[in-house]
Protein backbone atom coordinates (compact mmCIF):
# COMPACT_ATOMS: atom_id res chain seq x y z
CA UNK A 1 0.00 0.00 0.00
CA UNK A 2 1.28 3.47 -0.91
CA UNK A 3 1.06 6.76 0.92
CA UNK A 4 -2.41 8.31 1.23
CA UNK A 5 -2.39 11.96 0.11
CA UNK A 6 -6.16 12.40 -0.11
CA UNK A 7 -7.69 11.78 3.34
CA UNK A 8 -8.52 8.10 2.80
CA UNK A 9 -9.79 8.42 -0.78
CA UNK A 10 -7.75 6.09 -2.99
CA UNK A 11 -5.88 7.98 -5.71
CA UNK A 12 -3.99 6.73 -8.73
CA UNK A 13 -0.53 8.29 -8.38
CA UNK A 14 2.29 7.66 -10.83
CA UNK A 15 4.59 6.67 -7.95
CA UNK A 16 4.05 5.27 -4.47
CA UNK A 17 6.34 4.81 -1.49
CA UNK A 18 5.99 1.13 -0.62
CA UNK A 19 8.35 0.92 2.36
CA UNK A 20 10.93 2.94 4.28
CA UNK A 21 14.02 1.62 6.08
CA UNK A 22 16.38 3.71 8.21
CA UNK A 23 19.78 2.95 9.71
CA UNK A 24 21.03 5.28 12.46
CA UNK A 25 24.54 5.50 13.87
CA UNK A 26 24.74 7.13 17.29
CA UNK A 27 28.30 6.13 18.22
CA UNK A 28 31.63 7.27 16.80
CA UNK A 29 34.02 5.65 14.34
CA UNK A 30 37.58 6.50 13.24
CA UNK A 31 39.36 5.50 10.02
CA UNK A 32 43.11 6.05 9.75
CA UNK A 33 44.24 4.05 6.69
CA UNK A 34 44.13 5.51 3.18
CA UNK A 35 41.46 3.35 1.62
CA UNK A 36 37.70 2.90 1.38
CA UNK A 37 35.90 1.71 4.51
CA UNK A 38 32.38 0.46 5.21
CA UNK A 39 30.95 2.50 8.11
CA UNK A 40 29.46 0.06 10.65
CA UNK A 41 25.81 0.77 11.39
CA UNK A 42 25.20 2.69 8.15
CA UNK A 43 24.33 -0.31 5.99
CA UNK A 44 20.54 -0.76 5.85
CA UNK A 45 18.90 -3.54 3.83
CA UNK A 46 15.59 -3.58 2.00
CA UNK A 47 13.72 -6.30 0.10
CA UNK A 48 11.94 -4.75 -2.89
CA UNK A 49 8.38 -5.92 -3.53
CA UNK A 50 8.82 -5.70 -7.30
CA UNK A 51 11.65 -5.88 -9.85
CA UNK A 52 10.26 -2.60 -11.25
CA UNK A 53 10.79 -0.75 -7.97
CA UNK A 54 13.39 1.94 -7.53
CA UNK A 55 15.17 2.63 -4.25
CA UNK A 56 15.65 6.24 -3.15
CA UNK A 57 18.78 6.47 -0.99
CA UNK A 58 19.41 9.46 1.28
CA UNK A 59 22.44 9.88 3.55
CA UNK A 60 23.15 12.41 6.27
CA UNK A 61 26.51 11.57 7.85
CA UNK A 62 28.64 13.73 10.20
CA UNK A 63 32.29 13.69 9.08
CA UNK A 64 35.37 15.36 10.57
CA UNK A 65 39.13 14.79 10.67
CA UNK A 66 41.76 14.52 13.41
CA UNK A 67 43.96 17.27 11.89
CA UNK A 68 44.05 19.59 8.89
CA UNK A 69 44.83 18.89 5.28
CA UNK A 70 42.66 15.80 4.94
CA UNK A 71 40.64 15.10 1.81
CA UNK A 72 37.65 12.83 2.26
CA UNK A 73 35.21 11.12 -0.08
CA UNK A 74 32.01 9.24 0.61
CA UNK A 75 29.81 6.92 -1.42
CA UNK A 76 27.06 4.33 -1.26
CA UNK A 77 27.42 0.86 -2.75
CA UNK A 78 24.72 -1.72 -3.42
CA UNK A 79 25.27 -5.29 -2.18
CA UNK A 80 23.16 -8.15 -3.53
CA UNK A 81 24.11 -11.77 -2.91
CA UNK A 82 27.59 -10.89 -1.63
CA UNK A 83 28.51 -8.76 -4.66
CA UNK A 84 29.10 -5.00 -4.35
CA UNK A 85 28.24 -2.49 -7.08
CA UNK A 86 29.37 1.13 -6.86
CA UNK A 87 26.46 3.41 -7.74
CA UNK A 88 26.74 6.74 -9.57
CA UNK A 89 30.01 8.57 -9.06
CA UNK A 90 32.09 11.30 -10.69
CA UNK A 91 33.72 10.66 -14.06
CA UNK A 92 37.32 9.47 -14.22
CA UNK A 93 39.78 12.37 -14.47
CA UNK A 94 43.49 11.68 -14.23
CA UNK A 95 44.37 10.10 -10.90
CA UNK A 96 41.52 11.71 -8.95
CA UNK A 97 39.47 9.49 -6.65
CA UNK A 98 36.02 8.77 -8.09
CA UNK A 99 33.32 9.28 -5.48
CA UNK A 100 29.80 10.62 -4.84
CA UNK A 101 30.73 13.26 -2.25
CA UNK A 102 34.10 14.91 -1.58
CA UNK A 103 35.53 17.59 0.68
CA UNK A 104 38.77 19.05 1.91
CA UNK A 105 37.75 18.96 5.56
CA UNK A 106 38.44 22.10 7.61
CA UNK A 107 39.92 22.09 11.09
CA UNK A 108 37.80 24.37 13.25
CA UNK A 109 37.32 23.04 16.79
CA UNK A 110 34.25 20.82 16.89
CA UNK A 111 33.53 21.32 13.16
CA UNK A 112 31.84 18.55 11.16
CA UNK A 113 30.80 18.29 7.52
CA UNK A 114 27.53 16.58 6.58
CA UNK A 115 27.80 14.07 3.74
CA UNK A 116 24.40 14.34 2.07
CA UNK A 117 24.06 11.95 -0.85
CA UNK A 118 20.84 11.44 -2.81
CA UNK A 119 20.61 8.53 -5.26
CA UNK A 120 17.86 6.69 -7.12
CA UNK A 121 18.78 3.07 -7.79
CA UNK A 122 17.09 0.36 -9.89
CA UNK A 123 18.26 -2.93 -8.33
CA UNK A 124 15.94 -5.03 -10.57
CA UNK A 125 15.44 -7.75 -7.94
CA UNK A 126 13.10 -8.93 -5.22
CA UNK A 127 16.04 -10.29 -3.22
CA UNK A 128 17.38 -8.43 -0.21
CA UNK A 129 19.50 -5.42 -1.17
CA UNK A 130 21.94 -3.81 1.25
CA UNK A 131 23.18 -0.25 0.77
CA UNK A 132 26.52 0.43 2.47
CA UNK A 133 27.78 3.92 3.26
CA UNK A 134 31.52 4.03 2.69
CA UNK A 135 34.08 6.63 3.72
CA UNK A 136 37.13 7.23 1.54
CA UNK A 137 40.20 8.71 3.23
CA UNK A 138 41.87 10.17 0.15
CA UNK A 139 44.86 11.66 1.97
CA UNK A 140 45.83 13.20 5.29
CA UNK A 141 44.92 12.07 8.77
CA UNK A 142 42.22 10.14 10.61
CA UNK A 143 38.63 10.54 9.38
CA UNK A 144 35.95 10.61 12.08
CA UNK A 145 32.25 9.82 11.99
CA UNK A 146 29.99 11.54 14.57
CA UNK A 147 32.90 13.33 16.22
CA UNK A 148 34.20 16.82 15.50
CA UNK A 149 37.76 18.02 15.01
CA UNK A 150 39.72 18.51 18.26
CA UNK A 151 36.57 17.81 20.22
CA UNK A 152 36.71 18.27 23.98
CA UNK A 153 34.56 16.71 26.67
CA UNK A 154 32.66 19.94 27.09
CA UNK A 155 29.05 21.11 27.03
CA UNK A 156 30.09 23.38 24.14
CA UNK A 157 30.58 20.31 21.87
CA UNK A 158 27.76 18.15 20.59
CA UNK A 159 27.58 14.52 19.50
CA UNK A 160 25.39 14.08 16.41
CA UNK A 161 23.81 11.08 14.75
CA UNK A 162 24.24 9.91 11.19
CA UNK A 163 21.69 8.06 9.10
CA UNK A 164 20.91 6.36 5.82
CA UNK A 165 17.27 6.20 4.66
CA UNK A 166 15.96 3.89 1.94
CA UNK A 167 12.55 4.29 0.29
CA UNK A 168 11.12 1.78 -2.12
CA UNK A 169 9.36 3.68 -4.90
CA UNK A 170 6.97 1.86 -7.22
CA UNK A 171 5.48 3.38 -10.30
In short:
This protein is mainly beta.
Q: Note the total helix count.
A: 0
What does the main sheet amount to?
A: 6 strands, antiparallel
General form: globular
Q: Determine Rg (CA atoms, Å).
A: 18 Å
Residue share in β-strands: over 45%
Secondary-structure-derived class: mainly beta
Low-pLDDT sequence parts:
none
Total E-strand runs: 12
Mean pLDDT: 85
Give the termini separation. 12 Å
Helix content range: under 10%
Which series of helices and strands comes N to C?
EEEEEEEEEEEE
Describe this structure in words.
There is one protein chain. With 171 residues, this protein is mainly beta. Helix content is 0%, strand content 48%. It has no helices and 12 strands. The protein has strands at residues 16-25, 29-31, 36-38, 45-46, 54-65, 70-80, 83-86, 101-105, 113-121, 129-139, 143-145, 162-170. The strands form 2 sheets. Strands 1, 2, 5, 9, 11 and 12 form a 6-stranded antiparallel β-sheet that branches. Strands 3, 4, 6, 7, 8 and 10 form a 6-stranded antiparallel β-sheet that branches. Strand 6 and strand 7 (83-86) form a beta hairpin. The mean pLDDT is 85.
Amino acid sequence: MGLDFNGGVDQDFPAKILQVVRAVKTNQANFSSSSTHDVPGLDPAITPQSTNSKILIMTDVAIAVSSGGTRVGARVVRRVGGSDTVLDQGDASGSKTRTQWASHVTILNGFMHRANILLLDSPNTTSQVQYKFQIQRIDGNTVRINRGYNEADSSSHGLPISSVVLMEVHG
